[in-house]
Amino acid sequence: MFLQTLKDIFDTFGAPVFVPVVIFIISLAMKVEVKKALYSALYAGIGLFGFNLLTNAFIPIIMPVVQNMVKSTGVSLPVFDIGWQATAIVAYSTRVGMIFLGLALVLQIFLFAIKWTNVFQPGDLWNNYSYMVWGSMVYLITDSMFLAIACMIVLNLYSLLFSELFAKRWSTYFQYPRVTIVQLHHVGSIPFAIALNWVLNKLGASKINLSPDALQKRLGIFGEPISLGLILGLLLGLLGNLTSLGQLASWGQIATVGIATSAIMVIFPKVSSIFAQAFLPLTETAKKNLKKSNSKSGDKSREWYLGVNDAMGYGETATLTSGILLIPIMVVLALILPGNEVLPLVDLIALPFMIQGIVAITNGNIFKSVIIGAIWFSLGLYAATYTAPLFTEVAKGVGVTIPAETLLITSFGILTSPVTALIFLAFLSQSWLWIGVVLAIYAVAYVLFKKKKAAIVDYLERSALYGSTPEKQPNHEQAPQVG
Predict the structure, then answer these.
(1) Per-residue pLDDT reduced to its tens digit, 239-269
(2) Which sign, positive or negative, has the C-alpha torsion 110, 111, 115, 119?
């Protein structure tokens, strides 16, 4: 009954209403003043609603261009990307998913309370659907509720480890004190991004400093977000209309995409600044409470971070630029990669969400971010290709109608994480050997990280700044204090 009630709440209100309620409760629990807690909740709701308005307006403009790109190649791929929104609905509609939703809330609070992790994940309870999708596929094949729940718990443990690993890096880069992202479908790329960033630095890629600040200095007016958005949009429009440049309607679409992309580059950071205000009272109160707690207990080592919605990083200039550049790149790669059967479509607009962890690791170096992102998401296409039949069966089981021209469905934004897919495959195999390997790797990684945390975090900061300008300009407009 409790789980069904939770599902009904999510279905009825959605993230723009549910997340503010969570923020309000957390704020009161942390002894934030009622007025400031209320304002925090309202700013969170306004910000999320603003994000939805922008993305929902941008999708109908950009999708026809992407579809034209695909049609002009004549290539047909059987796996259709239905988008993260539809995937979330599927996850919240499965029995396994709803069981984990209640379990996850208890687990995540417990792990934070016993100091297993310094990341308070329930700040973004909504995105637990990412675990629920993988668990539902395990249950579909194994018919074992135990294995499905165990898989989701292990995925949660890994994502918390990855999130804590780069919490300071994300917080420092995006300039949101004591907050970080916790979504499984984003933080899974962190170990890969760290490793490949090291390789690229060794190869000298850090010398190509394509950060927003560097671009603005070199290109002048053409390096500013408003102009950069226009240029990127016009480029996308041209790529989508190469076969029909002689038609007036094509130039109308090209111009529309250009202006729309420029608008996204300019407006999104402003909405981000509104959303950011939801966390100012929380971070200030947390600092005060932590200082008092440490002085009483003598423990001055704990620095904790609040898990937040991934929309907070979407509007940053390097993140938007890298994500938009990856749209045509991933379409081309999907068409030419041997063995890939996935056509990324609806989730392409989510690429700035998907790449923000990589952008933080490279400290906003667009050149390195695009390279790392292209390789990571290319590997992810194979993961999505393999899991598409399973996800399609799960979706059919909860009543999703498959498009007539499509054989299978997937989510480019959620099911393209190679690390997550490997853990999933271990549980899908029902082999205690492979499951044991997954658990052993986590145990070793966890112990090493906790033992060497200060050195690892310091390395990430130094690695991010390697070959780039140490000073980081604000990525979003400075928000006034709440209340």
Answers:
(1) 778 788 888 888 888 898 888 878 877 777 6
(2) negative
Contact indicator for 241, 65 with CB cutoff of 8 Å:
yes
Rg of the chain on CA atoms, in Å: 22
Do 262 and 230 form a contact (C-beta atoms < 8 A)?
Answer: yes
Q: Which of 59, 50, 55 is nearest to 16 (CA)?
A: 50
Query: What is the per-residue pLDDT across 92-107, written as a single tens digit (0 to 9) for each?
Result: 778 888 788 778 888 9
Biggest distance spanned by C-alpha atoms of the chain: 74
Number of CB atoms found within 10 A of residue 1's CB: 5
H/E run at residue 312: helix 311-314
Residues in the chain: 483
Rounded to the nearest 5 percent, the helix, strand and coil shares of the chain are 75, 5, 20
- Nearest Cα neighbor of 103 from 21, 23, 15, 6 is 6
Question: Residue 79 forms beta bridges with which residues?
Answer: 342, 408
| Cα distances (Å, whole numbers) of residue 228 to 219, 224, 257, 260, 271 | 10, 6, 13, 12, 19
- Determine the 3-state secondary structure of 189 from DSSP: coil
Alpha carbons within 13 A on the beta-carbon side of 243: 10
CA quadruple 47, 50, 55, 61: dihedral, nearest 10: -160
Q: Which residue has the tokens 């407009």?
A: 477
- Classified as helix, coil or strand, 180 is strand
Pairing mode of beta strands 342-343, 79-81: parallel
In 281-377, which ranges are E strands? 305-308, 342-343
Q: Given the DSSP bridges, would you call strands 408-410 and 79-81 parallel, antiparallel or unpaired?
A: parallel
Give the global pTM. Answer: 0.78
Question: Residue for token digits 């082999």?
Answer: 431
Task: Identify the band that residue 291 occupies on the pLDDT scale cut at 50, 70 and 90.
Answer: low
Backbone angles phi, psi at 81, to 5 degrees: -85, 110
Residue 29's CB: how many other CB atoms inside 10 A? 9
**Closest to 181 in 3D by CA, of 168, 192, 198, 194:** 168
Q: In 114-224, which residue ranges form alpha helices assigned H by DSSP?
A: 129-142, 145-165, 167-174, 184-187, 190-202, 212-219
Top pLDDT among 123 and 421 is at: 421
